[in-house]
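A note from the maintainers: we've had questions about how concatenated examples are separated. There is no special marker in the raw files; a new sequence line simply starts the next protein. For clarity in this README we add a label.
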Amino acid sequence: MTAPDFARFDQRQYPTVSARDGYRGWLPSYESSVEDHMDLDLLDRVTTVPWHEATRVADLGCGTGRTARWLRTRTQSPIDGVDLTPEMLAVARTRRLHDSLVRADVRATGLPDARYDLVVCSLVDEHLPSLAPLYAEARRLLHPGGVFVLVGYHPFFMMASGMATHFDDPAGQSVAIETYVHLSSEHVGAATAAGFVASELHEGLIDDTWVELKPGWATYRDWPVSFVWVWRVGTERVSA
């Protein structure tokens, strides 16, 4: 199945920039505008990952270190971060949460094969035209028995609300970051082809907490806005 083009659903028509340029422009307000309820609260719901037993973690799309800060409350294992935006990495370096930080694409990190038992990627997949390279890279990094945890912007919400990932620039202009729709079937297909089996799926809904944070979202109450997939290394890779 071919995923629908987000342009068909875009109701805001904000000027759109690449992920690298977008996150560079978003940096001044990023920490204050990305809500923990979108991603970190979903990680709290995961029950099948023994975070404290991880021996080495890859944090793909690590940004300023928000996910690593959460991970540090669960594990003291080394964490290697990867991000495409040097300005984001500069902030992450000041936090000293990662053991190493690499400027690279999440689909081609340059990290060693089979070095990790846990790979985490949060709020990245909606910026990728295809999921297959991300899942393939996560599988390459994991040793047998490893776990891939993926948090994302829910396709239903972006399609029904017509809202791309976006931020306000210093002039107050809303700017969208390139956004792609990935249905659950695409996640399953890409994961299966890479050799993963599903362990958990949780979906975050627009609830009282969201409405308190964003009163204008009351109209979206009970809509799914984000998700977390947990994938375990299972069978050998399957031909696409």
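[label: protein 2]
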Amino acid sequence: MKKIALLTALLVALCSTALAYVGNSTSHKFHYEGCRAEQRIRADHRVHFDTREEAIDAGYTPCGICRP
């Protein structure tokens, strides 16, 4: 599991120059775009953030898988 999380974070970092963050309005967790947990968020529960600080200021906590 740790290897998958590390690979996910690495792929996200390599594939995008401007990282995007997606929050789940139900769990109040936020993820890197592309995280396997992010991919399971329902469309009506998605909240988009431009920065990590924006997500934290909105009361969201980082995902334990992708560790944004």
